[in-house]
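Exercise 7b. Backbone tokens:
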């Protein structure tokens, strides 16, 4: 009886071990987990994520599951538990994920031919604020404590010039900062900047043009920050190198198609990608070491 029980236990353990063995990454039962940070309307992200997923599965030998977590912090944490393999993430999220889990930057977003971006300081055109020094003693709106373009980069700019606003508020979104300035709730604010294209503004003011068609005339740019690299596409460090390279090449091909260009524009505000490395973000890392808060967006 004892011998029979031992045999049953051995068989049970062996069978359990077989069931616990994980399927190979990129298969139907263990798809590559690709995360998108929720930076735009959820439906827009979901619709275009489907286009991306279909293209990746058609042009690689892998299966994918593209998801949209609630925040970039959730994406960073997912890399720590191997619930994320690839992500289109903001610069600060990459900084955290690289620092904590060795996540690698392999692509950088290109916007209208430019691989870097800047912050912009905005104020009402009819205000007395004409330069950054005029922000001393004023009420200034930022995006949130961990937004690189909406707080950390402009904060560094102000600190370097020893300019101290009287009061600061966090609007949590770039368009909300613009709205607060337009409605005179604050004296000035900081958001992301993108250069105009074909005579049309592409910076954060464009986000509210439907509500405020005259925003370009009413809210003016005071000054720009120094440029830093655009947001990256990142990969889990211990993914197979061949898999990383195949996905990188396929994403570059996707961006070169009409449907791909439309999708990455709507999802990421991007017009292309370029290959990159962690070294391309060293200057950003140095800045964030001194400025970055423990968490945020």
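Sequence design result:
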């Amino acid at each position: 009886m004892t011998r029979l029980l031992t045999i049953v236990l051995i068989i049970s353990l062996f069978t359990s071990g077989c069931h616990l063995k994980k399927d190979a990454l990129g298969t139907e039962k263990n798809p590559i987990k690709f995360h998108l940070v929720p930076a735009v309307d959820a439906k827009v992200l979901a619709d275009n994520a489907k286009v991306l997923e279909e293209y990746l599965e058609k042009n690689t030998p892998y299966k994918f599951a593209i998801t949209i977590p609630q925040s970039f912090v959730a994406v960073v944490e997912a890399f720590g538990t191997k619930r994320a393999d690839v992500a289109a993430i903001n610069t600060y999220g990459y900084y955290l994920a690289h620092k904590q889990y060795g996540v690698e930057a392999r692509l950088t977003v290109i916007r209208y031919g430019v691989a870097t971006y800047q912050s912009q300081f905005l104020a009402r055109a009819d205000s007395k604020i004409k330069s950054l020094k005029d922000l001393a003693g004023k009420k200034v709106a930022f995006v949130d404590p961990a937004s690189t373009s909406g707080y950390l980069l402009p904060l560094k700019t102000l600190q370097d010039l020893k300019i101290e606003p009287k009061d600061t508020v966090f609007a949590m979104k770039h368009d909300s900062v613009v709205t607060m300035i337009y409605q005179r709730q604050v004296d000035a604010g900081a958001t992301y900047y993108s250069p105009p294209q074909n005579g049309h503004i592409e910076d954060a003011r464009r986000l509210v043009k439907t509500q405020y068609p005259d925003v370009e005339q009413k809210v003016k740019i005071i000054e720009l920050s120094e440029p830093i690299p655009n947001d990256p596409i990142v990969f889990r460090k211990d993914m197979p190198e061949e898999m990383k390279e195949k996905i990188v090449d396929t994403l570059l091909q996707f961006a070169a198609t009409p449907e791909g260009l439309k999708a990455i524009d709507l999802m990421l505000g991007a017009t292309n990608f370029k290959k990159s490395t962690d070294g391309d973000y060293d200057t950003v890392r140095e800045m964030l070491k001194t400025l970055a808060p423990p968490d945020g967006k």
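Instructor comment: The chain has a mean pLDDT of 90. The two ends are 62 Å apart (CA to CA).
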